[in-house]
């Protein structure tokens, strides 16, 4: 797959454990101190061992100054879209434009049902997610005073007042793997956010990208309208290895640059809850990846035999 040309960003995927809440916040601060761009937290409201993600995002926003924040990803079935839209815009305003909205269609339906949420089939959850996106974007759109009406199968608003508008154009990123969800990303989302650990073969990324691109074009958009983000994990060591993301920082940089240039990813989000790894990613890996990608993009622009130059 081609490089979509997005700027490169790097972040962290922090476990919101409630056994040591100060440690969770410290890891978000470590993300910022490492020079990284984004701190994210999983959202499983039925998990009694976790802090509530929305409360955590708000608290971390007040404890940081520069880093952007997102859930990875928000559990839509337990967070109604109209309220989510107002909460997201409010947090973006309060944080000075540092919030992005990762969204998920929902899983673990027994746990969702135990919390009083709905139980949906895969097809129903995707339809509900599409309706939710329409409501969220509609409430953010204050360019019109016309009240919002969305008469969906799962979500409805009937004359809701619009606003507040967020401080910046909040990106909506969807976690997805299956074709119908990928097509929804192409039609309506700003980003695709899978986890590398769930990818069986890198060729699957090529297939998924093609599905997103085709849906984007069919909807009158361009493939570049969709940022590709990737949750990653691995280990730093002194010796090079054969495995992906297992070795010294320079090996990580080479492999992430390949994922950008060959598969179109431009945001890498590191799991593991390790402040040292965060620092290595921010201070060693990220600058090296940017330099490798910058050099290759420059070569493509100047080489008359390159795909870009033709």
From TrEMBL:
Q: What keywords appear on the UniProt entry?
A: Oxidoreductase
- InterPro entries in the record, alphabetically? F420-G6PD/mer, Luciferase-like_dom, Luciferase-like_sf
Enumerate the spans annotated as Luciferase-like domain: 10-231
Quick check: keyword Glycoprotein in the entry? Answer: no
Superkingdom, natural source: Bacteria
What the entry lists under CDD domains is as follows: Tetrahydromethanopterin_reductase
| Keyword Oxidoreductase annotated | yes
Matches recorded under PANTHER family: 5,10-METHYLENETETRAHYDROMETHANOPTERIN REDUCTASE (PTHR43244:SF1), PTHR43244
Q: What is this protein called?
A: LLM class flavin-dependent oxidoreductase
């Amino acid at each position: 797959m081609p490089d979509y040309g997005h700027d490169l960003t790097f972040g962290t995927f922090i476990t919101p454990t409630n056994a040591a809440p100060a440690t969770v916040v410290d890891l978000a601060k470590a993300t910022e101190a490492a020079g990284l761009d984004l701190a994210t937290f999983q959202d499983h409201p039925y998990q009694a061992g976790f802090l509530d993600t929305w409360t955590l995002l708000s608290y971390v926003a007040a404890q940081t100054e520069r880093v952007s924040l997102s859930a990875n990803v928000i559990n839509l079935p337990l967070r109604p879209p109209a309220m989510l839209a107002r909460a997201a815009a409010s947090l973006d305003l309060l944080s000075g434009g540092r919030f992005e909205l990762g969204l998920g269609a929902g899983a673990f339906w027994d746990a969702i049902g135990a919390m009083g949420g709905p139980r949906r089939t895969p097809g129903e959850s995707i339809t509900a997610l599409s309706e939710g996106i329409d409501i969220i974007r509609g409430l953010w759109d204050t360019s019109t005073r016309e009240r919002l009406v969305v008469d969906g199968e799962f979500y409805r608003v009937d004359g809701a007042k619009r606003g507040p508008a967020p401080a910046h154009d909040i990106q909506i990123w969807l976690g997805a793997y299956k074709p119908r969800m990928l097509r929804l990303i192409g039609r309506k989302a700003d980003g695709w956010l899978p986890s590398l650990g769930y990818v069986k073969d890198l060729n699957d990324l090529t297939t998924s990208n093609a599905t997103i691109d085709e849906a984007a074009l069919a909807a009158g958009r361009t493939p570049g309208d969709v940022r590709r983000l990737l949750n990653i994990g691995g280990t730093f060591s002194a010796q090079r290895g054969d495995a992906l993301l297992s070795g010294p920082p320079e090996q990580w940089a080479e492999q992430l640059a390949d994922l950008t240039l060959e598969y179109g990813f431009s945001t890498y989000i590191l799991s593991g809850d390790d402040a040292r790894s965060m620092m290595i990613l921010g201070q060693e890996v990220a600058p090296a990846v940017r330099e490798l990608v910058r050099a290759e993009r420059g070569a493509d622009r100047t080489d008359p035999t390159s795909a870009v130059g033709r």
